[in-house]
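User: Could you walk me through two proteins back to back? I'd like the raw sequence and the structure tokens for each, with a short line separating them so I can tell where one ends and the next begins.

Assistant: Of course. Protein one, sequence then structure:
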Amino acid sequence: MRKPFFKRRPVFWSSVIFIGAIALLIAFFMQPWRQKWITPVPGVLITPSEPPLKPADVKPDSAWDLVQRASVEVTKAYKASAASGKLKDKFADENVLYNLVPWSDAEFPATAEYLANSQVALDLYRKVGQAKDKRVPYTGTNTSGFDRQYDSMLLFPASAAKKVSLGDYEGAYADLDALVDYWAVYTHGAGMHFVLGIGGEMFASRYMGNIALLNEVPADVALKTIRHLETMEVGPGQLQEMFRKESLLSPTMVDAFLNPKGSILFYDLPGWLKKRPQLFMLLTASSRWQMQRDMDAFFGNIVFMAGQPYDHARLTKFEDQLNPYLSRSQVLVKTADPPGYVAAGMYAPFVSAVITNCYRTTASLRMTELVLAVRQFQQSEKRLPSDLNELIPKYLASVPLDPFDSKPLRYKVKQDGSWIIYSVDKNQVDDGGTKGLDLIFSSTAPADELEQVKKSRKKK
């Protein structure tokens, strides 16, 4: 009777089995078929230049201290104004109009009362942009407590509108300059602080432009405002610093997956596995160390992109590579470090939106500079400039560039005598000032906005 084949050459077959077992173990733990989803960018730093400000470290009369004190005062003003019953019903309707129609206390009774009660708060807000210490605590995506601070975007324009009605253009633009300074402080933070900051700057600049379109602003006031706006842009360096501060989130993202109460990243996993994230890490050849390393590389790529000229195709490609059309099973089986991949995919849309809106804010500030300059030319020469080069050097040192393509911002006079200043916006294609494709500031903006308000009220 012949012996079984594995007994004929026991040493050989034992070696085969041993080597096979080792290979299987290596394959199980290394899983070489998995595709890497992020590659580090050499030489890019993701450590912020200074540690985030802790609430306990806020110094007296620093920008953030003034913001908090003003928030307390404006809350008192809001409550005092709400007690009369006017504010709740009328303030929301009034605040969309007072930069479009002439101001009077009778026309805007709720806003007038709120404004009168808010003078202490406004005085504090005016000091925010002048504070030497402009550090802002990190907030993540929490926006609680912003309601009354957000009212500064309504009260300052109301104050400016009232001063315009009195012929005090210097005071009106000083208020709007203070509003830009106030929101610029938020751009020194990260997360929703930064988002609110760039949005507030854009909002304030539109008010500046509308006043110039509806009134004949004195030359010295307009030129002072233009010079001020030139200093308020958020540059690539500041945008990079914001994302460096955002990178401090990555350990929280890792902890969110490793939470023993259940991962929030793979919410549809079987319960027994979701409650055992370490086992899931083992099965997917991942680890806390690898997830943190990949998240660092992910933020390194973001910081690098934030420092480059705007490129819509690159931003889209970056977002798409983290949100491809893969099923959950394909992600789990084919992707290296699935937890890091999913966490990055959840964050990626925020990156594209923030970078694009930051460039839009820069474009809006520069378009407002041009609106003020064109109006000054029109007031002085009694005609419109044939092109923007006529504004140099009396009103502008040079024609502002469109941040989206680094070419001069566009100017077009229409047959009806109206005119527009526009940016090519995120598609980086000159669509001739087409609304919805290009970013536009029109000479008819106040009338157009007023018409939209009237239409929306008719629908209600």
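----
Protein two, same layout:
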Amino acid sequence: INRQAAADKALVLAMGQLHMALAGSGPYDAPLAVAISLAGDDKALTDPLDQLQAHAHDGLPGLVILRGRLDDVAEEASVPPPVASDAPWWRRSLAPLMRLVKVSRVPENGDAQAMPPGPERSIALARAALDAGDLPGAVKAMGALSHPEAKAKAWLADAQARLDAQNALTRADGEVTKRMSGGAATDNAKAGNAGAGHAGAAGAGAP
């Protein structure tokens, strides 16, 4: 019993270290390996932990980095499409100037929901979501882009990977909680049975 209790405590500690590592943007393979080794043959726990291995060596960009990269996504989205070679001469002449003009459609009150549909709205919604720590909301906002550019696609892939990792870690946490609750319930039951046994023995010995 003591050995199992010690293993459970070590698992909780390993999960805490995994949380801290995954909260950043660096590798988290070391604490993940420890957690997997302590999980043993508990498939309900090892399955979500195994899902974290894909990015464990390189790590995943954190919310701060994802928030900063939205500026690059916005820059890319603001570039007007190339002018066709058979377009009127005046349009071809104005094309270089149009690339320098940037008009923000974000309302003065900062309410991105009030913006017309389009890349700028999606990016503004994603920024607001990340500022509130809402990664699922940011992924949903960027996922609404109908024709994402290269940087937007890369951003969305990384953000989705982080969201999947966080969800997997949450599932693993739930299994660890079940394990700890089950162990506590077993200990309490054994303690109760032992107490009942002592009481019975005492009653049998009474005159």
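The CA atoms of residues 57 and 136 lie 24 Å apart.

Let me know if you want the two compared in more detail.
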